[in-house]
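Deliverable D2.4 — example input (structure tokens):
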């Protein structure tokens, strides 16, 4: 029987530091310890305090969920809470997000979690995906599924090659650290028009003359062109909030703006 061992916190720190291309000396100076002490921590010869762990994590911009994993690996209790978005603890956050989405109507807007599952949406976004079968959207609705499935929006996306390339790069990066995303990536890799999975991390964006890439899609017999803006909370202290992203779709031309306004009436 093979026994699986979890990496120690020193290994986790070293891996993140290498990924960030930071030297031991640079990181040690940033958190106020000696390079020798940081080296002992990475080798597992010294147990870091919770304060030092969190200081290192902040300097390396480690996500809150992973910071809790570091604390657990070092034998400490998690520091950051994870409240459900639908629960009372995040009621004000939820109401603020709904107000933002409603104000963006008649243009589509969604709030997604780490796996790009839709947590909140406005009427325009719901109209956009209404014709897509529920089994294609997933429960909850997933942006990767909706955009890339042949029975979703892939079939009516005129610039599918370039638009899907952006999505696949994001899914590739997410799948490296998230088992749920990795399973979804395995499934999506078998869908028509989707390039082989080993190439996703190397897909280069098309050379375009526009300031931002647009999503060009035909819906209801109308050609629409939109671009998106992603935003997140600046100072989250809750894991759920830290993993939320707001994606707002904007019309890229006057014809699209007029059509979206007509559809809302």
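Example output (designed residues):
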């Amino acid at each position: 029987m093979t026994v699986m061992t979890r990496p120690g916190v020193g290994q986790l720190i070293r891996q993140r530091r290498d990924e960030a291309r930071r030297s031991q000396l640079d990181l040690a100076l940033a958190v106020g310890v000696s390079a020798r002490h940081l080296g002992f921590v990475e080798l597992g010869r010294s147990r870091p305090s919770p304060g030092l762990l969190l200081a290192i994590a902040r300097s390396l911009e480690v996500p809150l969920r992973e910071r809790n994993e570091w604390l657990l690996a070092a034998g400490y209790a998690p520091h950051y809470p994870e409240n459900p978005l639908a629960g009372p603890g995040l009621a004000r956050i939820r109401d603020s997000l709904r107000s933002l989405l409603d104000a963006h109507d008649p243009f589509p807007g969604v709030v997604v979690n780490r796996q790009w599952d839709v947590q909140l949406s406005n009427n325009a976004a719901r109209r956009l995906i209404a014709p897509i079968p529920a089994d294609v959207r997933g429960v909850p609705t997933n942006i990767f599924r909706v955009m890339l499935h042949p029975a979703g929006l892939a079939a009516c996306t005129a610039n599918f090659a370039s638009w899907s390339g952006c999505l696949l790069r994001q899914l590739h990066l997410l799948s490296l650290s998230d088992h749920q995303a990795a399973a979804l990536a395995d499934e999506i890799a078998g869908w028509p028009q989707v390039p082989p999975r080993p190439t996703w991390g190397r897909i280069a964006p098309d050379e375009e003359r526009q300031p931002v890439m647009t999503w060009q899609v035909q819906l209801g017999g109308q050609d629409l062109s939109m671009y998106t803006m992603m935003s997140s909370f600046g100072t989250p202290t809750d894991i759920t909030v830290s993993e939320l992203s707001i994606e707002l779709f904007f019309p890229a031309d006057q014809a699209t703006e007029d059509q979206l306004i007509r559809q809302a009436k």
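The CA atoms of residues 69 and 78 lie 7 Å apart.
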